[in-house]
Amino acid sequence: MYALIGYGGISLIQLLVQWMQILDRAGPGMFGRGEIGIHVLFGFALLKMVVFLLAMVAFVAGLRSVRLREPISDDAEH
């Protein structure tokens, strides 16, 4: 699970680097959507990745807080 969190973090960094590269060379009407369209597309991708990472971190935190109980034996009651 920690490897998946690391993979998600690396993907988030990759997305941000690609966004910066596109902004450096973006001209008017790039991809036919204009500059606002680029920001919207990357904004949604960024939001999805952040929510995904938060869900994985919450899952790992939940797993770490689970405590296993000792099985109750019928022999111990008699």
| Average pLDDT for all residues | 78
| Order of helical and strand elements | HHH
Shape: rod-shaped
Total strands: the figure is: 0
Quote the distance from N terminus to C terminus. Answer: 42 Å
Task: Indicate the radius of gyration in whole angstroms.
Answer: 22 Å
The tally of domains stands at: 1
Which regions have little confidence, pLDDT < 50, spanning 5+ residues?
none
Strand content: under 5%
The total of helices stands at: 3
Q: Key terms for this structure?
A:
mainly alpha; 78 residues
Describe this entry's structure for a reader:
This protein has 78 residues and is an all-alpha fold. It is 77% helix and 0% strand. The protein starts with a helix and ends with a helix.
Blueprint of the fold:
Layout: H1 2-25, H2 34-65, H3 74-77
Précis, in short:
By secondary structure, this protein is mostly helical.
